[in-house]
Amino acid sequence: MHTTVWTPPVRPPTFDRVLPACGRPAPLLTAPLLILVLGAVLLFGCDAGTEASDASAPDAPANLAATAREGAVALQWQAVAEAEQYRVYRTADPSAGGSSLLQSGVPTASFTDTTARNGTQYEYRVTAIVGDNESAPSAPVQARPRAVDRVVTGSLRERIQSTYDAMPRRNSEAFAVPTAEEHAQWRTLLAALIDTDTTAARALIDASFPSYALIRFTDTATDRRYWLLQEAPTVETGWGTVVIDSSPVRDLAVEVPHPYYDINTYAQGIDLFLETGARAFLMAGASRCANRELSGCDGETTVCNGDYPVSDVAHAVRTPFQKAHEALTDAFPDMVALNLHGNGLSDCETVFLSSGVWDDTTDSVIALRDALRDRDVEAADPMSSSCPLVGGTNVQGRYTNGAPSPCTQAAAAATGQFVHLEQQPFFREEPAQYAALIAAVNAVFPPRSREE
Question: Distances from the Cα of 25 to the Cαs of 21, 81, 363, 440, in angstroms?
Answer without folding.
Answer: 11, 21, 78, 75
